[in-house]
């Protein structure tokens, strides 16, 4: 089933010059990029985006990090794009991320793990709406 998901290159990925490499992987995989922007996330948007982690001890650190520099926000479309993009990223903890995945190849810490992807259709819908207005998405 074709579906849309929200992908993000986090500030560490942008700072390290991994944007083109990650977009290359997305395009080579065959996903259609239907939204794309460089974006300095306002603190309120970051707190909303990570709302489900608000009671975790690392919440403050997470919000500080994600607002520490611009991210690349990406809307992707394709067959099983939600699970497929998460599989391309690899495990959240880079120590468990397989070589060949984005985190396996480029990330070394749990907090600074280069990329993000929605984990369900409900999160994809919520996150796409949080980061993109309708007019910024290709039909
Ligand atoms: P992401 O998938 O973007 O969404 C939640 C984020 O929380 C996750 O990536 C990690 O970067 C971060 N995270 C999860 N566990 C920890 C942790 N123990 N310490 C710091 N950050 C964490």
UniProtKB/TrEMBL annotation:
The active site is at 116 (pros-phosphohistidine intermediate). One of its GO terms (biological process) is UTP biosynthetic process. It catalyses: a 2'-deoxyribonucleoside 5'-diphosphate + ATP = a 2'-deoxyribonucleoside 5'-triphosphate + ADP; a ribonucleoside 5'-diphosphate + ATP = a ribonucleoside 5'-triphosphate + ADP. Its cofactor is Mg(2+). Major role in the synthesis of nucleoside triphosphates other than ATP. The ATP gamma phosphate is transferred to the NDP beta phosphate via a ping-pong mechanism, using a phosphorylated active-site intermediate. The gene is ndk. One of its GO terms (cellular component) is cytoplasm. The keyword Phosphoprotein applies. One of its GO terms (molecular function) is metal ion binding. This is Nucleoside diphosphate kinase. CDD domains: NDPk_I (cd04413). It is found in: Cytoplasm. The keyword Metal-binding applies. ATP binds at residues 10, 58, 86, 92, 103, 113. Its main location: cytoplasm. Its EC number is 2.7.4.6. Pfam families: NDK.
């Amino acid at each position: 089933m074709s579906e849309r998901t929200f992908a993000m290159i986090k500030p560490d990925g942008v700072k390290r010059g991994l944007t083109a490499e990650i977009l290359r992987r997305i395009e080579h995989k065959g996903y259609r990029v239907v939204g794309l922007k460089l974006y300095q996330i306002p603190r309120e948007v970051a707190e909303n985006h990570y709302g489900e982690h608000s009671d975790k001890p690392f919440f403050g650190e997470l919000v500080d990090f994600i607002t520490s520099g611009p991210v690349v926000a990406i809307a992707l479309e394709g067959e099983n794009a939600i699970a497929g993009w998460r599989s391309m990223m690899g495990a959240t903890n880079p120590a468990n991320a397989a070589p060949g995945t984005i985190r396996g190849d480029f990330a070394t810490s749990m907090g600074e793990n280069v990329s993000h992807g929605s984990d369900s259709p409900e999160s994809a819908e919520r996150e796409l709406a949080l980061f993109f207005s309708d007019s910024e998405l290709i039909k």
